[in-house]
Amino acid sequence: MKKKEKKIWIAWERHRRTLELARDFDCKLYIINYSKNRLLRYVLSIKRTLIILIQNKPNILFVQNPSIILSLIAVMLKKIFKYRLVVDAHNAAIVPDDNFLKNFYQLYQFVHKKATITIVTNRYLAKIINKNGGTSFVLPDKIPEILNIEDNKKENSVYNFVFVCTYGNDEPFKAVFRAGRLISKNYNIYVTGNYKKVDYSFLENLSKNVILTGFLPEIKYWKLLLSSDCIIDLTFRKDCLVCGAYEGIACNKPLILSNSKINKETFYKGTIFTENDANSISNSIKQFISKKTLLEKEVIDLHYEMKRNWNFNFLKLKYKLDSY
Questions:
Q1: Entry's InterPro entries (predicted)?
Q2: Is the confidence at residue 278, as pLDDT, over 90?
Q3: Which domains does the chain have, with CATH numbers?
Q4: pLDDT for the residue 3
Q5: Tell me, what's the pLDDT at 110?
Q6: How far apart are CA 193 and CA 195, in angstroms?
């Protein structure tokens, strides 16, 4: 009988995808996250990573990228520790969106090429990995499991939309704010995330139907999603599958997403696609109202189909890892 292999997962930041995949792969997960200045944080994180590798001597090492520094270390130590290296690469690990990091793209290519397998969320990102000489495997985000949270949706004439937002540079949140003025007062848009990142003068002129929730604890966040009629999550990044879309599917809520090829391929039911400007967003909200019943039925089908496909692809990935 084949001896059970030792698998560990190291990440330098906490992310729901990492937590879920580590559990599904039955890996011991080490999250290294020091709240120090950047240089000291890197020094301490590298030291802790080395200690973990020496103590565990894994057969398979999973790392989350970002961090590119962690991924580089994992690649350089691969031959010394003789592990297979699996890099779970988020969008910023494929093509960095930070202007400073773009100067070091050759390092990203090096990681892509030297990892045993690089997991990505869609086929467009997989093409980049393969072009850089690496081996890719497409595994989208897993639809989250929601347990023991009551759906407190109330039937009334007011429609509630939740715009999942982090106020990042890739998010058209200002267009969503402007869209609030173009829709009925009976349509509320709840905007999640830490709004203190935004210039206060811009927030002063919000319409009353745009409600900023601030950063919410997990339970309150899920309750907000469950109480909504529709989830909005938008990005300027053309190859990005946003977390809010999967969270919406988990809640069986129809979606309004940015109009991109990958979104149309992935969320092919129960979804309205919009351009990232105020007029298009407001029109999509109105379109949702007219198609609400159909979209609610479609999103339940989509939930089942995506869950089935994810389980199938996960088993394929496990088999591929075992074959090395």
A1: Glyco_trans_1 (IPR001296)
A2: yes
A3: 7-139 (3.40.50.2000), 159-305 (3.40.50.2000)
A4: 63
A5: 97
A6: 6
